[in-house]
Input
Amino acid sequence: MPQSPVNNASSFNVPVEKLFEQAEETGVLVLTGRKLSIFPPTVSSFDLTDVTVVDLSANRFVVLPQAIAEMVSIERLCCYNNVMRTLPNLNKLQSLVSLNVSRNHLANLPAHICSLPLKELNVSHNRLVSLPDELGQLKSLMDLDVSGNEIAALPSCIGELTCLRDLNVRRNHLQGLPEELTSLALVRLDISVNRISRLPLSFIKILTLRTLTLHDNPMVLPPTNICLRGRVHIMKYLQAEMEQANCRDDISVRSSRAAARREMRANSSRRTHSSRDLKDGPPQHPGARTMASGPLSLEAEMESVAKQHGLDWSGRSRSIGAGPSMTGSITGSLSVSRPVSGHSPSGMVASSTTVSAGGIVPKSKK
Output
């Protein structure tokens, strides 16, 4: 983008008022290098509504004169190399297709600029730290130069600039590029002198790219030796990396599917065993059969012990616990009559004995 749309050396010898008078006839107003900070008061006496080109380069304007915002026919406006800190509302300039405000002191780009039908926008060498989210509204923009600023990241809306062909983001603080950038039909791209270490693999989608400048970046992907060989080698490298990445993704997907199938089979097996267990009842301990018959055997043994002692056995109660080790008790009462002298008229003493699995405990009752 040219810094000044008009270059007329002879105009330096012409008074400013005369230049305004000529602009009424030619439609071109050139005031470059006049050290102007304001327009002369006589400007209101001229009809400048048909002016299409204005060049205010190399002056001392802190604010763009309000008279400029009233020139509704302006198509090209160049304010290169001034000291402007802000821009007035230019919404009336609906014929403006080229705006150059480079080498000023702009700290931000006003959102209202994005409502203009711009095809060229140069805001290089200012103090911008970001670009407005409304940037995507510049549907006709073909040439964007934001080099020489302090921009840390490009907004994702840059992918909405469908007509953009030339993008210059040289000498900023960029650490990466948005994926949305790869959807553009760029012809020239300058990302040199930034902090970018990796290019998106999707860069191979920019088939229209003819010039790619990326020197003075800490490049890792592609490595520096590939970058030095130029655009064609860079694109080939990115293509190879993309194919490897797709292969790794395929392997990962197949592994995930195999793991999912194994998990499904394991879950199905657990459900089958659970259903079978519910049908067959709880599992039995290996000693369950012995314990089931244990009470009868123990009772028979107790009866045998009673008989050996000449006692009568009558089972009173039994309690058997089942489990890994059998615990329980069987109690009964034994009664016996035996002669004892001098203690009762009949010469007999009644005695009762409590028998348990742990032994025989006699009890006497007089």
